[in-house]
Amino acid sequence: MACFCLLAxxxxxxxxxxKESAPVTTTExxxxxxxxxxxxxxxxxxxxAGVRKFNDGYLVEGDILLSEKDLATQKxxxxxxxxxxxxxxxxxxxxxxxxxxxxRVASTLGTAFVTGTDTxxxxxxxxxxxxxxxxxxxxxxxxxxxxxxxxxxxxGIVLGSAGFPTSSGNPYNSILMNTNxxxxxxxxxxxxxxxxxxxxxxxxxxxxxxxxxxxxxSCGGATSNEGTAGVGAVHIPGTPTGNSSNSWxxxxxxxxxxxxxxxxxxxxxxLY
Length: 272
Hints:
Collagenase (Catalytic Domain), single chain, alpha+beta, 7 helices, 21% strand, globular, eight-stranded mixed beta sheet, 13 strands
């Protein structure tokens, strides 16, 4: 239901995802958001601070895109764990394990996105989890990676997007990557692109941001709690109660190559 978007701006890159299949063409500020919409967003367990209109939905907490359909769906908010920087999952996870998840990259995306996808897949598969990933070149895949083109807006730029697993136990089926030159440049760094895709796949299989309770820990700025997001924030046993430096699921990236740290691997092995 919920999703996240990767934003870049002023030396900081905000990693996350969103729920959408069409190219993003417009962005509006919070003045375009009605109070009734803000009330519905709040009822789903999201913070309403900084909400803005984004294409055919609403960008919440800097990196979560909700569609009108999402806002019409009543969800029961799940309890949050006491805020600490640990690994967190949603209450929805991928089921039917062991399982191979197929990933297809749209033909409209360039070589860097294909190679970046292969990089992300290889990183997951090296962990020998009960879920494995395989890139396919035709047919209907479990996850399709496609593109949108949008330049900077409001001091940042959306870099990528994805969402959470369905209640039926399937991974979220779409990742969007920004093809605008302002996002990755005219010659995208494969490790950077792969790190973003790796993060978005994490959302697709049920991982919340490591610092969901305070995005300022990795993004800077004012304290911002992402809330329950209607899908919970379940602490994963065995992950640290202190700072989880450089986790692949931090809300904001380091602007370059980032893969799993030791606690991330513990979390992935615990769930999958």
